[in-house]
Specification:
By secondary structure, this protein is α+β, with helices and mostly antiparallel strands. It contains 19 helices and 20 strands. The protein is globular and about 90 Å long. Bound molecules: serine. The site of serine (SER) has 10 residues, from β9 and β10.
Length: 628
């Protein structure tokens, strides 16, 4: 089966159980500061799990784009990927265990057609300290389901991974594990959850890829015995049924949520791999197509040691294409840094296979073709994606070769902090890449020293520039600073055309663009955006001086100085006033800087791109300075 087939079957199955299909949220969470990327389908639904009504009802289904940056280094083996799709269905205080477990079991065994004898289950063993009982109900439901298929399912208490390795499965099919394994919340185990966080016991389903091994692990000598939670690779978790029914209180105890929810998450790629009975997830259709294209481009076959490069390229290109389709452009910080890291690592491996800069675009076409129907932003952003891939490849290729030469000159078994720093700043080698190159040669990198150097570097380049902006500036380079001043002008323009209720609600400014959130209740039409754009460009043409004036906070407020985070500022504040020779005040705003000295220093035409909702009552615009 293909990804597309399994995804469709899953959605159709739950639609037939009265679930409404909801779209996948973006890879960058909009209102969730707990993670850099969306890593599970429930994240965007949090308010609804806590009781807020969902416009589509109480039964929801989707396939969510997810990304886990912590797995980047693991990619290369047969099962780790950075990007993945999580199949999800939710009950918002509607059905519970006795519907969910049979539905998922039916989906796996009847719709996908997996052999029930290859499925193994884990359940929660209880947490006496927090008064949370063992999940005996799920055990009873699972036993019944297996029984109907002629399987006598025994339950065994294993509790921990160690115990599992020592005792093995003892002929069991359902295993009790403790909170470390069978409790789910965004923060992990009960003791790690902050007050107000919801969570609950879960029941996970595993597929056995190698029943012929009896009690043994897939890697010889990995553990005395194998079991579902063993990490050797024999068992793969394909679905997780979370019974999201508790919330942590201020005093640290747990209470039942007013509504008992189901939060189910299933690994689409892994279910396809199980169906194909092949534990190499890179054999599923989308990856197989990418790998074939790499073979064609390089004239090298996918086998032996080089398989690792193929897998890294395939995973990273797919991940980066999805990032770009969500507007996460390559930068040197934050989420954009991950896009850049994926691309640079892919380029290094393409270089190993002696493939040139046409490769990324050729590969991206396969990704867009495979997923474009489901995730429409891929097709919509095709041109930007291709242009960015080509630009990144060209830019990095020019320093890659000289950087590699520089690397080859390093002697001994330690890459010094200075060398790693030069490779980073002059040749654009992400530090993780230097570490990887070093490891291949049995060398180590002085990471402590490198971190210290980076910290010193950051301090020097930021000296004098206090950071008071929420979200704020990615760096203090000339381009970022220009965009920062332009952002002040944009806010003044927005207030001019939309009214005084408009205030800053957040910002994030990089060399490439400004992302700006502001309070406003409805969509801003293009006509108004054009006017705001013109206002900023006029201010740039006016060559207005940008001056810092210090004044008491009360005076600033009286003068109508714009500011959003008054409470964060001291009694005497810095106000940036942008005023031209004719006495026209283009902007006056509370800020910590840095700014250009004169708006004439802003190079390029200020251009407002997308405008969309950011959260309730908050809009988000992105704008750039286009070279003219
Ligand atoms: N939230 C759970 C997970 O991420 C199930 O959706 O595994």
């Amino acid at each position: 089966m293909t990804l597309q087939e399994v995804r469709k079957k899953y959605v159709a199955f739950f639609e037939s159980q009265d679930h409404a299909l909801i779209p996948s949220a973006g890879l960058q969470p909009e209102n969730d500061a707990t993670t850099l990327f969306t890593g599970s389908g429930m994240q965007p639904l949090l308010p609804h799990l806590l009781g807020e009504k969902h416009p589509k009802g109480t039964r929801l289904v989707n396939s969510q784009k997810c990304f886990r940056a912590e797995d980047i280094d693991e990619v290369g083996d047969n099962r780790h990927t950075t990007f993945f799709e999580m199949l999800g269905n939710w009950s918002l205080g509607d059905y519970f265990k006795k519907e969910q477990l049979p539905w998922f079991y039916t989906f796996l065994t009847k719709e996908v057609g997996l052999d029930p004898a290859r499925l193994y289950i884990t359940v929660f063993s209880g947490d006496p300290e927090n008064n949370i009982p063992a999940d005996v109900e799920s055990v009873a439901i699972w036993k019944d389901l297996f029984k109907k298929d002629g399987i006598d399912a025994h339950d065994i208490e294993l509790l921990t991974e160690e115990q599992g390795g020592e005792q093995g499965m003892q002929g069991g099919r359902i295993f009790y594990f403790d909170a470390k394994k069978n409790w789910w919340s965004r923060a992990g185990e009960p003791q790690h959850m902050p007050a107000g966080e919801p969570g609950g016991p879960d029941s996970e389903v595993f597929f056995d890829f190698h029943p012929e091994l009896g009690e043994k692990c897939v890697i010889e000598g990995y553990g005395t015995y194998c079991h579902p939670n063993c990490d050797c690779g024999r068992f793969m978790e394909i679905g997780n049924n979370v019974f999201m029914q508790y919330i942590k209180k201020e005093d640290g105890s747990f209470e039942e949520l007013p509504q008992k929810n189901i939060d189910f998450g299933g690994g689409l790629e892994r279910i396809v791999a199980a169906k194909n009975n092949d534990d190499d997830v890179f054999t599923i259709d989308v990856f197989a197509n990418l790998i074939r294209e790499i073979e064609t481009l390089s004239n090298i076959s996918y086998k032996g040691d080089q398989q690792i490069s193929f897998r890294i390229i395939a995973d990273h290109v797919r991940g980066a294409v999805f990032m770009l389709s969500d507007g996460i452009m390559p930068t040197n910080t934050d989420a954009g840094y991950v896009t850049r890291r994926l691309l640079r690592r892919a380029i290094i491996h393409l270089n190993k296979l002696e493939v040139g800069s046409e490769a990324l675009v050729a590969l991206s076409k396969h990704v867009i073709k495979a997923y474009g129907d489901t995730y429409t932003s891929l097709a919509e952003k095709k041109d930007v994606i291709e242009a960015t891939l080509l630009a990144e490849h060209t830019k990095f290729s020019s320093t890659l070769k000289s950087g590699l030469k520089r690397f080859e000159k390093i002697r001994g078994d330690l890459v010094s902090a200075e060398d790693a720093f030069v490779l980073f700043t002059t040749y654009g080698f992400p530090i993780e890449m230097t570490e990887e190159l070093a490891e291949e040669k049995g060398m180590k990198v002085d990471m402590e020293g490198f971190k210290k150097k980076m910290e010193d570097h950051r301090k020097t380049s930021r000296a004098g520039a206090e950071h008071k902006f929420k979200g704020g500036l990615a760096d203090t380079s000339a381009k970022t600073t220009m965009l920062h001043t332009a952002t002040h002008l944009m806010l003044a323009g927005l207030r001019k055309y939309l009214g005084d209720d408009v205030h800053q609600a957040g910002s994030n400014i990089t060399e490439e663009r400004t992302r700006f959130d502001f309070t406003h209740n409805e969509k801003v039409n293009r006509d108004t955006l054009d006017k705001v754009e013109a206002y900023v460009n006029e201010a740039i043409s006016a060559k207005a001086d940008v001056a810092i004036e210090q004044m008491p906070k009360t005076e600033a407020k009286e003068k109508g100085v714009e500011g959003s985070f008054w409470e964060k500022y001291p009694d005497v504040v810095n106000v940036y006033v942008i005023k031209d020779d004719h006495g026209v005040v283009w902007s006056q705003e509370l800020c910590g800087g840095p700014h250009v000295k004169n708006t004439g220093d802003i190079k390029g035409a200020f251009t407002i791109g997308t405008e969309k909702a950011s959260s309730a009552g908050v809009r988000r615009v992105k704008a750039t300075l286009e070279t003219v």
